[in-house]
Write a structure and sequence with these properties.
Number of helices of chain A: 3
Radius of gyration of chain A: 21 Å
Oligomer: heterodimer
Mean pLDDT of chain B: 89
Shape of chain A: extended
Largest interface: A-B, 7 and 5 residues
Structural class of chain A: mainly alpha
Distance between the termini of chain B: 19 Å
Low-confidence stretches of chain B: none
Distance between the termini of chain A: 51 Å
Order of helices and strands of chain B: HHHHHHHHHHHHHHHHHHHHH
Mean pLDDT of chain A: 81
Number of domains of chain B: 2
Chain lengths: 119, 455
């Protein structure tokens, strides 16, 4: 087995282990979901499934969607960098670190401003 | 290519955005700190622009004399806004700097992609800034939505045009291409630029947005934002000087000058009046662009447009600043203002004379230069209509002066407007009125500046 295969194997093992941890940790220590009232309604985009078309609607979900897209697109910039890491030198490493640092700053800003709270 | 040298002002603005957000992480960022930060970043961008020298193009960005001069305009036009904007929190500051970052990227674009990114980057913060005016009043939100939809239409036109251009040119670099699809693409992208600049068939969103926005924001939108859209149009026209787009511009210009002036005559709300007057001024700018294109992108043609924009930066920002400082919002409230506040009213009168193009103000020389270039390029009819529209525009500019000085203030609304203006507002008004009056006497200042930038 070559080194890439081994790396992939380790990667798969770590991801699988993390997946199990997340699944069961949530069940063990997370808050119980309430299976009554609205809890059993089909859940789509944070809105009631049936309503009048002309009513105003909550933008809560869209806020998260936009944040997701923003961070997702930012991540798309990291991908080509990661693929070319063999030919990049220290300067590019510093540049990408700065970029990721900026993303952390963004996250901190949203957190501080209460955007991440589901209210 | 060295990005640090090519994009130094843009990097300063980006750093400013980050700094503004960092200040927002504080519990209550002191307003003075935010204000100083905004002004300091803009001054830094101005200095860095003045220190930059044109370089050859890279794949995405380039730095030419035109882009540098225009960057100087953008940042200069934003200074009054930075001095006057209400900084309850850091959000308007970050949005304003982001908006200018988009303009800077647009000015340095060497590819349609970068042009588009710059266009959207400068537009989206502007929608939000309009919507936040006056604690997000109903009217401001409505105007912002109109502005947003007009801007999105422009954005999609641009994207569609970009795709068509690519189909012919097989490259997204700003380089000439001659095929029919490229021509159609250019026309669509040109329509997007005309949308953003507020040329007449596509101007309907503009009065609403400018009326609902805070006066200092309207000043920013009417100067820096318009300068950016004009530059975008010039970049497109430069790709194909003989295209249908270049031929259509003088006609659009004539229509814009005439309709803008006619509609401004009827307005009672001062901010709406100035919005229509800004539509009319766009007509002159477009005439300048048309003459510039018809004369084969001559240096004099570009200088005429640059001078017009430079003068307009002071005239428009100053006029909107007066509305902010005086609190006057309708022509009725303006009655007798010249007797109540003689100093403020005198500055406003100077600005109005300059906007109207009375010699020897900056506005006069700006109109003269543009009309002269148009005549030299053989655009006789649009130039004649421009002259007529200038006369028409005196109807409301001088009308405002008459309201302020020669009408008695016995209207029912008088007395309500008794707002104490702040020193900063007076200072900005003075800093706008003096160049608006004197730039016409010393036109070589703009030439020296653009010469310094071109080195």
């Amino acid at each position: 087995m070559n080194i890439t295969g081994l790396a992939l194997l380790i990667d798969a093992a770590v991801v699988g282990a993390l997946l199990l941890v997340f699944l069961y940790a949530n069940k063990a220590v997370g808050a119980r979901s309430v299976h009554e009232g609205d809890g059993l309604l089909p859940y789509e985009t944070g809105m009631p499934p049936l309503e009048r078309a002309v009513d105003s609607m909550a933008v809560l979900y869209y806020r998260f969607a936009v944040l997701f897209v923003v961070f997702d697109v930012d991540l798309a910039f990291v991908l080509p960098w990661a693929l070319n890491r063999h030919v990049l030198d220290l300067r590019q490493a510093v540049a990408m670190t700065g970029f990721i640092g900026l993303m952390f700053l963004m996250l901190a800003y949203f957190w501080r401003k209460g955007v991440l709270e589901c209210r | 290519m060295n990005f640090g040298a090519t994009l130094a002002p843009q990097l300063a603005l980006a750093a400013g955005v980050v700094a503004a957000l960092l200040a927002g992480l504080m519990d209550r960022a002191p307003r003075l700190l935010l204000r100083l930060l905004g002004v300091a970043v803009i001054v830094a961008a101005l200095v860095l622009t003045a220190l930059s020298a044109p370089t050859s193009g890279g794949a995405l960005v380039r730095l030419d004399a035109l882009g540098l001069s225009w960057q100087f305009l953008f940042y200069l036009g934003a200074l009054p806004f930075a001095c006057l904007v209400e900084l309850e929190d850091e959000v308007p500051l970050a949005l304003m700097l982001g908006c200018m970052l988009g303009m800077g990227l647009l000015a340095a674009a060497n590819s349609f992609l970068m042009l588009f990114i710059g266009l959207e980057f400068m537009s989206i913060p502007a929608y939000i800034l309009v919507s936040r005016t006056g604690r997000a009043s109903q009217r401001a939100r409505e105007a912002a939505v109109k502005y947003f939809f007009a801007g999105s239409t422009a954005g999609s036109l641009f994207l569609f045009g970009m795709a068509l251009y690519y189909a012919d040119a097989r490259s997204l670099t700003l380089a000439p291409a001659a095929g029919p699809l490229a021509q159609a693409g250019l026309a669509l992208m040109g329509a997007a630029a005309l949308f953003k600049v507020g040329a007449v068939p596509l101007h309907f969103w503009l009065p609403d947005a400018y009326e609902a926005a805070a006066p200092e924001l309207a000043g920013f939108l009417s100067t820096s934002m318009k300068a950016a859209a004009v530059l975008m149009l010039m970049r497109l026209v430069a790709l194909a000087p003989a295209s249908a787009l270049a031929h259509a511009i003088p006609a659009v210009a004539a229509l814009t000058m005439l309709v803008g002036s006619l509609l401004a005559l009827r307005q009672q709300s001062l901010q709406r009046l100035l919005a229509y007057s800004s539509v009319s001024h766009v007509g002159y700018l477009l005439l300048g662009v048309g003459a510039w294109a018809a004369s084969g992108a001559s240096a004099q043609g570009a200088y005429a447009v640059l001078f017009y924009l430079g003068a307009y930066v002071f005239m428009s920002n100053g006029a909107f600043c007066f509305l902010r400082a005086s609190g006057v919002s309708t022509r009725r409230e303006l009655r007798g203002y010249g007797l109540r506040e003689p100093r403020l009213a005198a500055l406003f009168a100077v600005l109005l004379l300059s906007l109207g193009g009375i010699p020897p103000t900056a506005g006069f020389l700006a109109k003269l230069l543009v009309l002269w270039e148009a005549v030299k390029a053989g655009l006789y009819w649009p130039a004649a209509i421009g002259g007529g529209a200038a006369l028409l525009s005196l109807g409301y500019y001088l009308g405002l002066i008459r309201d302020a000085y020669f009408e008695s203030d016995e209207g029912p609304a008088s007395g309500e407007v008794n707002r104490a203006h702040r020193p900063s507002e007076r200072l900005v008004l003075l800093a706008c009125a003096v160049p608006a009056a004197l730039l016409g006497l010393f036109p070589w200042i703009v030439g020296v500046l653009s010469g310094v930038l071109a080195q």
